[in-house]
Amino acid sequence: QVQLVESGGGLVQPGGSLRLSCAASRSISSIDAMGWYRQAPGKERELVARITSGGSTNYADSVKGRFTISRDYAKNTVYLQMNNLKPEDTAVYYCNAEHTYKFWGQGTQVTVSS
Questions:
Q1: From CA 3, how far away is CA 110, in angstroms rounded?
Q2: Distance between CA 52 and CA 54 in Å, rounded?
Q3: pLDDT in tens, 44-100
Q4: Is residue 32 a contact partner of residue 43, using CB atoms and an 8 Å limit?
Q5: If 103 and its partner were Cys, which of 56, 58, 60, 97 is the partner (CB 3.0–4.6 Å)?
Q6: C-alpha to C-alpha distance for 80 and 32, rounded to whole angstroms
Q7: Distance in angstroms between the alpha carbons of the first and the last residue of the chain
Q8: Closest to 80 measured CA to CA, from 100, 59, 99
Q9: How confident is the model at residue 30 (pLDDT cuts 50, 70, 90)?
Q10: Torsion, Cα of 95, 99, 102, 106 (10° steps)
Q11: Do 33 and 22 contact (CB within 8 A), yes or no?
Q12: What percent of the chain has pLDDT over 90?
């Protein structure tokens, strides 16, 4: 079992930045992979960024060069640094952990609007 708690969402203007945090209830060094997904109204949930236990990362094409996923083992936390935000980045962002099963956080709203 892994409990995940996201934080850091909010309202930001286009071109702005936000950093999302995902705190895990157990050591993330033993989790196979962790990632961030997002779901906009009327759309399916999609992968934004993912990092494996070995450190490999992958990103959605729409966020490459703007978003960065990272982790802090000491804090059992995964981050998503989001720069140059666009209105189309507006969505609920969910943290995910893959370890035999998939575990999800409750989500945090990100709204990009002027």
A1: 21
A2: 5
A3: 999 999 999 999 999 999 999 999 999 999 999 999 999 999 999 999 999 999 988
A4: no
A5: 97
A6: 18
A7: 40
A8: 59
A9: confident
A10: -30
A11: no
A12: 96
